[in-house]
Amino acid sequence: MEIWHPFTQHGLEEPIIEIETSDREFLITPEGGKIIDGISSWWVNTIGHRRPEIAEAIQKEAQKLHQIIFAGFTHKPALNVAEKLSKFLPENYTRIFFSDSGSTSVEVALKMAVGYHFNKGKTGRSKVVAMEHSYHGDTFGGMSSGARSVFNEPYVKMLFEVERIPCPIEGREEEVINIYKNLLQKEGDKIGAIILEPLVLGSGGMFFYKPFVIEELYKLSKEYGVIFCLDEVMTGFGRTGTMFAFNQTNIIPDIICLSKGLTGGSIPLAATVCTEEIYNAFLSKDKAKMFFHSSSYTANPVACAAACANLEIWEKTDVLADVKKINNFYQGQIERIKKLGGKNVRALGDIFAFEVQAEGNDYVSNIGVKFYEYFRKNDVLLRPLGNTVYIMPPYCITEESLAKIFDVIEGAMKEYL
Ligand SMILES: *Cc1c(COP(=O)(O)O)cnc(C)c1O
Predict the structure, then answer these.
(1) 260 C-alpha to ligand 1 centroid (Å)
(2) CB atoms < 10 A from the CB of 20, how many?
(3) What is the pTM of this model?
(4) List of residues 6+ apart from 237 with CB closer than 8 A
(5) Which residue's CA lies nearest to atom 5 of ligand 1?
(6) Are 59 and 65 in contact (CB under 8 A)?
(7) Which end of the chain has the least Cβ crowding within 10 Å, N or C?
């Protein structure tokens, strides 16, 4: 049997690279080749690969407790995650629900939001609002909320319909706020939830937008009783320069989804965090009102121990200072990339992105493939999204590695543009 890899067209015979170990920002091959992980292994890694503190916590817990049923049972690692995460979140968040991936954390959020209305007798409020170009995972709820594209074309008829608002990129903010307002005026009583990627639309093309838009959309949502969910799966744990993207706003969402950085990028775990108001809608003597959701590996103790070790690193060290350093480095590269022909060159927190001119704008556009190969041959892992080139490294990356990434990008731009 051979392995069928994700997001891989095996027909193109794309090489599959074996990695034996990893260290800080490096992926290391069995031959000792060192590849700079410029995208944090698809955004999961935050504080560097194979952090000893996390490895140790995993080892310790693995000797003590593996998976146990989480309905009617609990354990210290899960209780510790709840306690430690609380310290980084506003007091309004009183409940944490565990699952195991970003996608499932989104499913849980949507089910919480719609179930909230249902339990309050509003059975017609099951519509969801999401942004164009958004990405919320590859399960059906995630795909439904996410943009329709080549990613999900065969399944379009199976997806539930979602109301769309455009992405409020610079210059379109007022327009988008008004579109949402009109939507609510027209059918606010049918809308149960809005789900957004805060500040950055990741997979959709690294589109940035301003915090005040989130505040305005939140205000409108409150006016119409719409549950406000932020999908912080990518933005959480420092990516945008604050621990969570919503920290750059003055609002507290009803529900947030966390996953990628929760264990520092070590093992899978996800959390959907909500306010007491959401939780209370399910609290009853009536069993039919409970939250009907579980995954077999809910709150895996080893994963929870890894999350605790990660949160301890956040407690003890100034992780955001590393993000700031990276951003400062980016500021010095913006002009350089512009001169080389980069369009829309932008940086936020740990993320640097720009577009290159190419025929067609879609994910399968050739230029991204050529760039990817060029980067790979130069021992840098970057995976352009169509013609959007972006960098999102682990925060411990050295200036030397950052400089190498930009040199390699320059090389690719000179070769192909
Ligand atoms: C990656 C991602 C997801 C899906 O997370 P998985 O762990 O891959 O299921 C959902 N939402 C956002 C914003 C993401 O970036």
Answers:
(1) 7
(2) 11
(3) 0.97
(4) 46, 243, 244, 258, 260, 261, 262, 264, 310, 314
(5) 102
(6) no
(7) N
